[in-house]
Structure formats: structure tokens, C-alpha cells
Design goal:
The protein is α+β, with helices and mostly antiparallel strands and 166 residues long. The chain is built from 7 helices and 4 strands, in the order ααββββααααα. A hairpin with a 5-residue loop joins strand 1 (31-34) and strand 2 (40-43).
């Protein structure tokens, strides 16, 4: 195993993200086995969430399929391996809220949680099965709406109405 791979495994052990992944595997009755590059595979993951064919927690990569399918997709393994490295850089479990914020931003900008997500882009969009989508011009529409609200005059009070009636 190379030094960067050993360093990632050690960092994810110390920051408890790999322990969290193994706990998730235990709680969901997901079978685990050793994979390449210090990674651990959780195969045939059954719970509905997250809505992904594969996802990573620390050095544990969860797949909804068996090992044969995993071995046939080295591109997806490379993508998920990069997520394991991201856990190390994020000091473990802070990865979750950071990833969530990036997914929300991407969803707002493109309608897809992965396309403009920093973590997915950094792990390789195409490797993970994501597409590069155009951004939606939301800020000009928001700005125009605020301008309309700012220039709307309050209704005039007629001579027969008091201030309390309006």
C-alpha cells in the first residue's frame, strides 16, 4: 500500500469516519469485505437512503450490488475512493454537513444535487455517473422580484377611511 493510501486509512480511523461506516454496515446488516487501496466494501446495501447506487463513509464504500459488479466498474471505485480521501481532508464526519450544503447549492443552481457539488466535481463527475448540467439563472429573477417589491407603493387611503381601517 502506498504512503498516501496508508495516510488516508489512518486519518479516517482517527477521525472515526471509518468506524461510523462500519457501524452503519452493522446496523443495516450489510456484508463487508476488504477492497483494494485500504478500502472496505459494503455490498448489497438495502436501505432506501441515500438514493445512490454507491456512497462512501470514511474508508467504507457501500454498493447496492455485489462484488462482481464493483470489480467491473473501476471508474466508480476511483470516484468513491476520492470521497474516502475527502473524508480525511474534512476531518471525518464534518464531511456530512459540508456535502449536504454543496448538494443543496448544486440543486438550487442546476436542479441536480451532484452537478455543481464541489465534492462530486472533485471526485470526478463522469466517474461517478454524474452529468455536467447548465446553471439556472436564479439570481437575476430574485433581483427583479426584489426590485418589484421595493417599487410597489402602499395603497392610498381615501378621505373617508381612517388609518385603523386599512
Amino acid at each position: 500500500m502506498s504512503f498516501p493510501v496508508r495516510l488516508r486509512a489512518a486519518a479516517n480511523a482517527i477521525n472515526l469516519s471509518t468506524a461510523a461506516g462500519l457501524l452503519l454496515a452493522k446496523l443495516t446488516h450489510t456484508r463487508v469485505e476488504k477492497g483494494p487501496h485500504g478500502l472496505i466494501f459494503g455490498t448489497n446495501y438495502q436501505p432506501r437512503l441515500p438514493l445512490a447506487g454507491a456512497f462512501t463513509v470514511g474508508n467504507v464504500i457501500f454498493y447496492r450490488t455485489d462484488r462482481v459488479h464493483i470489480d467491473a466498474r473501476p471508474d466508480l471505485l476511483a470516484h468513491e475512493s476520492r470521497h474516502a480521501t475527502q473524508y480525511a481532508w474534512c476531518l471525518g464526519l464534518p464531511f456530512f454537513p459540508l456535502y449536504g450544503a454543496c448538494a443543496a447549492y448544486s440543486l438550487w443552481r442546476t436542479g441536480d444535487p451532484g452537478s455543481r457539488n464541489f465534492f462530486e466535481r472533485n471526485a470526478g463527475l463522469a466517474l461517478g455517473g454524474y452529468r455536467e448540467l447548465p446553471t439556472i439563472a436564479r439570481l437575476p429573477a430574485l433581483r427583479n422580484q426584489l426590485r418589484r417589491l421595493a417599487f410597489v407603493k402602499p395603497p392610498a387611503i381615501s378621505a373617508g377611511q381612517s388609518q385603523k381601517e386599512t
